[in-house]
Amino acid sequence: MSPFMTRVRFVLGEVWQGISRSITLTIALIATFAISLSLLGVSLLVGSQVNEMKDYWFDKVEVSIFLCTSGSDTPSCASGPATEEQKSQIRTDLEAMQPLVAEIFFESQQDAYDRFVERFKASPISANVTPDQLPESFRIKLSNPEEFTTVVNQFLSRPGIEAVRDQRATLSKLFSVLGGLQALAFGFAVTMLVVTSLLVGNTIRVTAYARRREIGIMRLVGASKMALRLPFLLEAIFGALVGGIFATLILSVIKGYLVDQVIATSFTFTSFFGWGSVVSASLICIVSGTLLAFITAWFGIAKHLKV
Questions:
Q1: Which of 190, 211, 153 is nearest to 21 (CA)?
Q2: For the chain, how many helices (H) and strands (E)?
Q3: What is the C-alpha to C-alpha distance for residues 70 and 81, in angstroms, rounded to an integer?
Q4: pLDDT at position 57 over 60
Q5: Bridge partner list, 106
Q6: DSSP result, 93-158
Q7: Of 57, 109, 102, 59, the residue nearest 87 (C-alpha)
């Protein structure tokens, strides 16, 4: 057997002995990695979902230009309901804003009433509303929803126009809440990673202390610091990899069951993140856990290498 294979067998033997001697600590290490990396993965998936919803909803954002009615009391409606000339001018100006204005749809009072009744058909409020109480409107879809202010600034307070409303403002509040939840989940995950690093460091120190005589003898016979470090590094990385695998399984269950079979079937008004996001989050978790284990173990054993 070659010297290289002999060293490999020796190192793997040391790793196995370290794991078998402190099986309880190893299980605790794996469980902590699995929990902390799962939380990190969940925070990444929440971020993917927020981005997915933004792409889905912002693509459907409409700017609505509500025209004056006989009951309007805004200063721009002082002259009464919008005239046909004003409506024609609004349409002409909107068409001149192409390609920013991708689609223009005019909603009459009857169209608005039909949509209102359909939306509130189960509520008594629909019986107290008549078509003449609802405003006519131009509903505009933009090629770039980020430039909605261009439309708002041009038509706001114009005679014949009661209000200009952008759905993006309402959606932004929702995404702010979701972003806050994402930040909370990420902060909790980072806290768990810090706790995990402390546990890894403590495990390495306890194991190194238990083997201090062996380490001292190996140093006396000329073993390099890297040769002494390697078993401890591999033990920590082993815990991180196994914990990362468990975290990947947890994220897969979240996607395959909780999202696809439970949430997606109940909330059909939006799209959800795909398996690509799960793969990316899993890889980030495994790589992050491995690096954390390596760095913590590297410095955790440093004190005992001075024997």
A1: 211
A2: 10, 4
A3: 5
A4: yes
A5: 138
A6: HHHTTTTTEEEEEEE-HHHHHHHHHHHTTTSGGGGG--GGGSPPEEEEEESSGGGHHHHHHHHTT-
A7: 109
Q: Is 267 helix (H, G, I), strand (E, B) or coil?
A: coil
pTM of the full structure: 0.64
Stated as kind and residue range, the H or E segment containing 64 is strand 62-67
Q: For 61-167, CATH number?
A: 3.30.70.3040
pLDDT at 220: 66
Beta-sheet pairing, 137-142 with 62-67: antiparallel
63-121 pLDDT, tens digit each: 888 888 887 888 888 888 888 898 899 899 888 888 888 888 888 888 888 877 777 77
Q: Is the pLDDT of residue 254 over 90?
A: yes
Which of these ranges, 15-19, 66-70, 189-193, 230-234, has the smallest mean pLDDT?
15-19
- Contacts (Cβ under 8 Å, ≥6 apart) of 78: none
Contact yes or no for 108/67 (Cβ under 8 A):
no
| Alpha-carbon span 22 to 202, nearest angstrom | 12
Tens-digit pLDDT profile for residues 279-294? 999 999 999 889 988 8
Show me where the domains of the chain are located: 3-57+172-306, 61-167
In the numeric block, the tokens 């899993």 are attached to: 282
Residue 252 has pLDDT above 90, yes or no: yes
Return the ∠ at Cα 156 (arms to 153 and 160), rounded to 5°: 145
Output phi, psi for 212, to 5 deg: -65, -35
Taking residues 263-285, what's their average pLDDT? 86
Dmax over Cα atoms in the chain, in whole Å? 100
Strand partners, 65: 138, 164
Of 237, 221, 240, 241, nearest to 229 (Cα)?
237
Give me the chain's average pLDDT, please: 78
